[in-house]
Specification:
There is one protein chain. The protein is α/β, with parallel strands linked by helices and 279 residues long. It contains 11 helices and 9 strands. Helices cover 38% and strands 20% of the residues. Strands 1-4-3-2-5-6 form a 6-stranded parallel β-sheet, with helices on both faces. Strands 7-8-9 form a 3-stranded antiparallel β-sheet, covered by helices on one side. The longest helix has 16 residues. The chain is globular and about 60 Å long. Bound molecules: adenosine monophosphate. The site of adenosine monophosphate has 17 residues, from helix 2 and strand 5.
Amino acid sequence: MLVFRSIHEYSEWRNGLSGDVSTGFVPTMGFLHAGHISLVKASVKDCKYTVASIFVNPVQFNNKEDLDKYPRDEANDIELLEKAGCDVVFIPSVEEMYPDEVNEKYEFPGLDDVMEGAFRPGHFNGVAIVVSRLFRIIRPDVSYFGKKDYQQYMIVKELARREFSEINIIGIETVREEDGLAMSSRNVRLSEEKREDADMIFQLMKRANNLKVDFSPKEIEAHMTTMLSNAGFEKVEYVCIANGDTLKPLKNWSDTDHARIFVAAWLDNVRLIDNMELI
Ligand code: AMP
């Protein structure tokens, strides 16, 4: 596997390709786990070349402590990527990605003003900035995003529709730990004791499916918020049942046949997010 740290090195490699150059791209912030690797494997299966990137993007962090504490392990990441069949990893520095002041502004009305967008101001602008820069550098045909970050996946699809119609955006199902907790680089920050309670989000989302028959979306949201607080979650930012195509919060089940439930809650000073389709 090739490791490139500069745009110049990567571009030389990319320009030198000939024949079937179908390229799949998996952007990540590193500290890789099986969730990231499932994206890489999907690309390896679909494309001639697979490129991953590792870049902890400062522009998408609205909380400096979260950025400072973001876990990193480049050597292990490289090993995991190589094992998964990745061909190239691009690991730029902050200076390489942002040599000048960053002042692009992206807006995604309806998609970036709810849930994560409402609780993490500027976050999706930062995501759109880095994803568009990476798309211009990497020039992929296909790019893979996890549905663990479903709202991000929707926003990237909209970004691609506007500016990168040549890139096919594929969403990959969430990979979970055995107890149901969605894999996340941030999970290592949970203490052993609190880790045992963390699967509650998954258990309650599953229960929401059964409650659909008797309760409205708003009733289920309120019930889940109370249950999470009772289970020791310090703060429940949102439990939101929304239309999976538009992210518009649902008033009634009859509003759509594609409902999804979204949760963001703090446990042990770690912000956990998850979501699931309601069927
Ligand atoms: P991150 O490194 O957190 O920015 O994630 C990089 C990519 O991996 C994003 O597209 C995430 O949605 C995806 N991802 C993260 N966790 C998981 C998971 N548990 N299952 C599937 N995809 C994931």
